Amino acid sequence: MTGNNSPPNLPKQPIDKAYSIVSIKACIPSSLDLEKLNYNSWSNLFNRFCKTYDVHHHLQEPVSTSTAPPDPFFDTTDSLVVMWMYSTISLKLVDMVIDDSTTTHEVWKKLQNLFHDNKVARVIQLDNDIRNMAIGTLSVDDYFQEIKSKDDCLANLGSVVSDSSLITYAINGLRAKFPEIARIIRHQETLPTFDQVRSMVLFEESDMA
Description:
This is Hybrid signal transduction histidine kinase M. By secondary structure, the chain is mainly α. The chain contains ten helices and no strands.
């Protein structure tokens, strides 16, 4: 009986793992977009993805004083990570940051700067919008989705709206169309959650239909 001399299955090296990715969009489905102001969520996902495939160091500023031997695959892997970024951002952003000689870290910083330029002005505008939201001719679903969307944008810019404030803004914008339910919610001893308020108003809307 002859022994089995086949080599053992060795774990993939980081470079092999990185190149085994078929589609990064399966892991980061939402593209980075200036209109969506979704930098925080995108960057968190991209960061996590790079850590998983052991290429996170490419996002960081190179350390010139490092005593570690040079990585022969560094430039190749760096180019791969740049392509990952290009494939998970909007075409408009690609046009703004694309450069044949740009490293991963440089693209990463460019994107970060693009989303944080005029940050204060964006926060002020969004905060003003959300405070003055009114349901008008919107459906209840569309109204609450619009508020939540602005709330998410503010969170992405590092300006988190408290739950109580968000509910107050929502109620204020309902008074013209749903004065009774707005009054009831205002006078509750314990303020309901945002989702509970939406459900209450949806129920009221269905009664009016």
